[in-house]
Structures are given as C-alpha cells and as structure tokens.
Amino acid sequence: MNELANTKSTEISLIESLGLQARALRLSINANMWSLARVFVEAKTVVPHGEWQKWLEENADVSVRTAEDMIAAWRRFGGRPQFEGLEKVKVFKLLPLPAEKEEQFLAENDVAHMSTREIQAAVKQARAEAQQEIERERAARIAAEERAKAAESRPPEMPDEMIRALQTAREDAATQRAEVQRLADVGRESIEEQQRLQQENSVLRAELRERDEMLEGQQADYNRMQAELLSAKSAMARGDAEREVSDDFTPEAFTAAVRTFIGACARMPHMARRFAVMGHDAVSAYDEALSTVEHWAMESRRALDTVSSGGVVVASV
Asked: What's the rounded Cα separation, in Å, for the pair 158 and 144?
C-alpha cells in the first residue's frame, strides 16, 4: 500500500515539476519552443488520460493542436541545429515535408528569409515532386514486374552459339535421314534386280531345257537323215539313181510323204533365236542335212520338168 502511494506521489511531483518548467518557458515561447516541445513530449507520457488539455491550459496556455504540432516538430526536427533557429510557425509549415526531404529542402530554399506563405507553397511543391517521384517509382516497379512476368511466360532464350549448334545438328540429322533413305532405296532396288535376274534365269533355264530336248530330237532326226543320205548315196553309186520310179509312187504318195516331212520339220523356219545361240557343230549338221534336202529338191525339180517329144525324153536344163 505504501509502495503504491509512493509511486503516485512521485508521478504527481514529476507532473508538478514539468508544469513549473512549462510555465517558465511559456513566457519566451518562441525562443524556448524546442525546450517546451521536449517538455510536452515527456509530459504527454505521464499526464493521466483525459487531463491533457487541462494540463496544457494550466501550465503552458496553449491549445492541444499547438502542443501536438510542437511534439511532432520535436520528434522530427529536435536536436538539429539548422531547425532550432527558425520561428515556430515556419517549423510547423515544414511538418508536411515528405520524409527524408528536410535537408534537401533547406539546401534549396532560404527558409529563414521566406514568408510562411512562400514556405507553404515550396513545401506543397516539394510534396508534389515527391508524389511524382513516388508515382514514377511505382510505375517503374509495375513495369519491372510486368517485364518479369513476361520473361517468366516466354520460353528461355538460347545463346547464338547454341542456336547455331542446334541448327547444325538438325541439318546433320536431315542428311543422315536422306542417306539412310538412299541406302534403303538402293537395297530395295538391289533386291528387285536380284529377283528380276532370278526370274530371267528361271526363264533361261526353261529355254535351255527346251533347247536340249529339241537338240535331242534334232539329233535323232539328223542321225536318221544321215542314214537315209548314206543309203541314197550308196544307191546312186550303184547307178540306181536313174532307175525308173515305181508305179506306186503316185502324187498322193508324194504329197503324203511331203506332209510327213513338213510335219516333222515345220518348226525349223521359226528357230532363228535358237540357231543364234546354238554351237557351231550343231549348226553345221543342220546345214549339211538342209543342203542334202536342197540338192534333192533341185534334182526332183529337174526330173519333174522333163518332157517327152516324139518318143524322146528331153530333160530340162
């Protein structure tokens, strides 16, 4: 209980002391404004709630607004020599200055010789300039943020060296694909050519088999004709060539014999391709047999052209 009483007594003594200082300083308020403002700052923290105006009226004879302006001036400009010599009204006109612009404002303006209206106008101009600077900074920040967002949305830009390397790689890949396609085409053409050659070989083998079979038949015919030729030559050697033709060798018999011969040898005029690839010995055998037939045909034609005149047989020349 005694502790509480002592604390309350101490606060009252401090308030009374501050009131005494305020009453002493108010007599020269302009000269001692800064000291009075310091007293107001300290008193504001200890004067009970709701008694601030009464305290000001009793001890400083100033309004609450003036006291508040003085407190604001002390908190902002207190302890700074360049402001202590200024009149209270001028100091109050400087309160609206943008933060951290005080030194620059005093350097650009002769506040001591300016009227309060001029100071007010200059402060207004400084506030406008500060606001413009804030707007510029805000616009620059917004633009920077937009650029950052745009940069984030864009795909990353590659260095020129990487772009050139990528282009070279693409060209090499295209060249390799073209070469692979070319080799594939060549391989396909080779397969097709191989298949074509196999088909041609099959055809040639079939033709060779047919030719061999034909040669076998021709060889048999040749052997038979050789035998007949030898027999005819033997008969001619014995003088039988001039013998009279028997009565049974009628035109019908001759026609039948010719048809039989032609039937057996009918394909010979159409064997030019086979004769072209046939061996020399085989061609010579055919030629010899054909010469015999030609000689026989010539002699037969001469006999057929023989006529009789007055019982005399006249052979054609």
From this structure: 22
